[in-house]
Amino acid sequence: MEVNKDHKSGFVSVIGRPNVGKSTLINSLIGQKVVIMSDKPQTTRNKIMCVLTLDDAQILFIDTPGIHKPKHKLGEYMLKAAENTLREVDVIFFVVDATEDIGGGERYILELLSLVKTPVILVVNKIDKIEKTKLLPIIQKYSACYEFVGVVPISAMEHTNLDGLIIEVKKYLEPGPQYYPEDMITDQPERLVIAEMIREKVLHATRDEIPHSIAVDIEEITTRANEDLYIRAVVYVERESQKGIVIGAKGQLLKEVGKLARIDIENLLGSKIFLDLWVKVKKDWRNKEGSLRSFGYE
Ligand SMILES: Nc1nc2c(ncn2[C@@H]2O[C@H](COP(=O)(O)OP(=O)(O)OP(=O)(O)O)[C@@H](O)[C@H]2O)c(=O)[nH]1
């Protein structure tokens, strides 16, 4: 294989408070929907790696859970996962919401950042929602707290200045090979991506009625005689009352979730699927180490 000396590659960790738009940013960069998105905080639990292949660089993105002070075991797990990735990567994107003032969440992350030597780019997101004159004061406030190697204002949703962000990040990548084939967008097993797609649909459908106490486990994926895929998935909730909400009157809500999830999964896998969706109660799963492991949050 011919080695191209001008080719660069490296890992980028995307961090920020919940809901600032980390998943939206990665999805906009990669151009395909693989990271769960929700207007509720803390939906990203696993480190999902997405691969952006350009002519002269390959960037491997790691989407970390929204960093926050841990309240229960799952929170501690999420924080540790985020901290570890910060040391391992080549560049950190610290994503902040331009519509909100710098707060305790941001200061907490800045403290974490001061513990590592990795270069940090401040990504000021959601600039579509603010007046131009408001931007500079925000940037100045953040820059007074930390020495960023670069500052890039963007709108992840409207794809504004994503090119600028790519140019900036390339400055901090080392020369290196293309690790993954061009058509690869994520290294996560399909199982996990499918589970995340279903979880996202449940969260959306139940709106404010269910806290983040749901997990999805894919129990079986098999190919049927007619080449269709059979997928059996279980939505775990913490309480009996939540089970009723997720199923809905006459099973209507679960049916709708299944329908929407099936469309996404079929697009992902490129084949027809039969989605067999179940809801089960697993009490207090968030605080049990064993449960966390069995859902893949190690
Ligand atoms: N107006 C506007 N909204 C945005 C932009 N980027 C993200 N959003 C919205 O902000 C909300 C949160 O976005 P996510 O991408 O899920 O945020 P996140 O940081 O990944 O959140 P967690 O997974 O909870 O950590 C969603 O409703 C997005 O549509 C943007 O550039 N402009």
UniProtKB/TrEMBL annotation:
Residues 42-46 are annotated as: G2. It is a peripheral membrane protein. It comes from the Bacteria. InterPro entries: G_ERA_dom (IPR030388), GTP-bd (IPR006073), GTPase_Era-like (IPR005662), KH_dom-like_a/b (IPR015946), KH_dom_type_2 (IPR004044), KH_sf_prok-type (IPR009019), P-loop_NTPase (IPR027417), Small_GTP-bd (IPR005225). GTP binds at residues 16-23, 63-67, 125-128. It is found in: Cytoplasm; Cell membrane. Keywords: Cell membrane, Cytoplasm, GTP-binding, Membrane, Nucleotide-binding, Ribosome biogenesis, RNA-binding, rRNA-binding. Residues 125-128 are annotated as: G4. Pfam families: KH_2 (PF07650), MMR_HSR1 (PF01926). Residues 194-283 form the KH type-2 domain. An essential GTPase that binds both GDP and GTP, with rapid nucleotide exchange. Plays a role in 16S rRNA processing and 30S ribosomal subunit biogenesis and possibly also in cell cycle regulation and energy metabolism. Belongs to the TRAFAC class TrmE-Era-EngA-EngB-Septin-like GTPase superfamily. Era GTPase family. This is GTPase Era. It comes from Pelosinus baikalensis. The gene is era.
